[in-house]
Design a protein that fits this description.
301 residues, alpha+beta, five-stranded antiparallel sheet, 38% helix, 24% strand, elongated
Length: 301
């Protein structure tokens, strides 16, 4: 069923419903109002009594008019709700979120999000299901809600060039390697990023650091500009083949307190405070050196 036919069907059915129901509310209140007999000449009223009768009659007439108007408004409201409910039901019956008009394995709604033609299975002679589009996953998207929690020291957003609708099937959350790789040099959690909607070209990770985490905690290297403020943070990636968490090239935006890394795949990533990391590395090196020196002196004796 094409979009033009669907829209026409919606319009016709909605018009039919309104035409069928509307006469009930055009005439307003259909109940007959009660009539009041005018006093005969034989009935004697004083001026005061006439005035009281007139006021009472006007009051009752006003009350009847108000009641009629109120009843009419209530009917109109009920009819409006009925029409809206029926139209929603009709729209729901025609709208198919899984419709794939051109049979290219991408739903029409996904193609519209990606700027592709739902009636053409190819874009520049590339099958739509394989055509890579640059997309943004914003910090407040549902896909990142398990990462960007209230207690997280950073907010993550992504720019991904990929096939398919990234926001629909991207998953992000605490890494399964956390118990192995996490340590006191990291800022926040180690996260896993996965996407099953198609091939990926380029990924840019943006970690916006919270203002309260910008100042150095240790201040061990005050003369090293690259270890001051937001510049001391670096993105790390977990390499499964060697079972190690290592630094990758990172760019810094000091105006927005954002650290970013451009990669060619999703996986396991985290943010590390390089001041702490270097401090721990130097302590480890010193400890190893002492152990080696001790062993040598023992062997010499």
């Amino acid at each position: 069923m094409n979009n033009n036919f669907t829209q026409k069907a919606k319009n016709i059915l909605a018009a039919a419903l309104i035409t069928a129901i509307m006469p009930c509310c055009i005439c307003g209140c259909s109940e007959e109002t009660e009539s009041y007999a005018v006093p005969t000449a034989e009935t004697s009223f004083s001026d005061t009594e006439r005035s009281e009768v007139s006021v009472q009659e006007n009051s009752e007439a006003s009350s009847e008019t108000s009641s009629c108007t109120s009843s009419s408004d209530e009917k109109a409201a009920r009819i409006g709700k009925t029409i809206n409910g029926l139209i929603k039901g009709i729209v729901g019956a025609f709208d198919d979120p899984d419709r794939d008009s051109d049979g290219d394995k991408l739903t029409d709604s996904d193609e519209e999000v990606l700027g592709l033609d739902p009636k053409n299975p190819q874009t520049f002679r590339v099958p739509d299901a394989e055509y890579k589009v640059k997309q943004t996953v914003f910090a407040d998207s549902d896909a990142l809600k398990q990462v960007n929690t209230k207690d997280s020291p950073y907010t993550l957003s992504l720019e991904i060039t990929a096939a398919g609708n990234v926001n629909k099937t991207l998953t992000a959350g605490k890494s399964g390697y956390s118990h192995v790789v996490e340590n006191d040099t990291q800022l926040g959690r180690t996260i896993d990023l996965k996407y099953t909607g198609g091939d990926i070209g380029e990924v840019i990770l943006h970690f916006k650091i919270g203002d309260e985490y910008i100042e150095n905690e240790l201040n061990l290297y005050p003369d090293e500009k690259e270890l001051q403020g937001v510049r001391r943070f670096n993105v790390f990636k977990y390499f499964e083949d060697i079972n190690m968490l290592l630094p990758i090239e990172t760019t810094i935006d000091e105006e927005t307190n954002t650290v970013s890394a451009t990669v060619d795949e999703l996986g396991t990533y985290c943010v590390v405070d390089m001041e702490k990391w270097l401090h721990n590395l130097s302590e480890f090196a010193e400890g190893t050196s002492s152990e080696v020196s001790g062993t040598d002196s023992k062997d010499t004796r």
